Amino acid sequence: MFDRKDWNLVVLPAAVSLAVTLLRLVGELLNWSPALFSKAAGGGGSIVGITWLIVPFGAWFGWTLARGGSRPASTARAVALVIAGIAVVPIGATIVDRLGLVAAGSPMQLAVFVIFSLIGVVIARSGWPDLSRVLILYALAARIPVVLVMLVAMLGNWGTHYDVAPPGFPEMGVIGKWLWIGVLPQMTIWIWFTLVIGSLFGLAAAAIAKKRS
Hints:
globular
């Protein structure tokens, strides 16, 4: 699925993301500024975190691919598919919520987001397959270390955002908790988020590269 060019593009961003993940963990363990290193469930919009890296890396991937001769068949179609891939998650989750099918904060609510995220990935990735492939590889390289850090943090009960459950989440064993709030969202929802946001900025960068060439 991934070729050598994909790995060459991703290796540096993956290393930067790993460094930021470890810095974030150290900052939380040492009780550094909550604004920079929030311990709240989900990260609390902490300034130090790998989520923000999706924007510059997505743009860089798009720019590099475009300069190398890879471009979407239709930029307008690619953008439309990405927007559709974004929209399907909140729309689908809202419909399920309005129907009262799942309880807020429950594992089933998380499962709903997982399912619609996977649908969003399928929709968005076809717009520019080369960029989508690189973004998915980067997402895996960035998120797998987070999954491992979460397991260690949960086993140690460190009190960081890596091991705290969201409000309303039921009590369960460490492995069950890790699978539900660690492995599942990191390997689905965050892959989707990386793909769709990275694609938007990658497509914008590619358009700029095309005009300059």
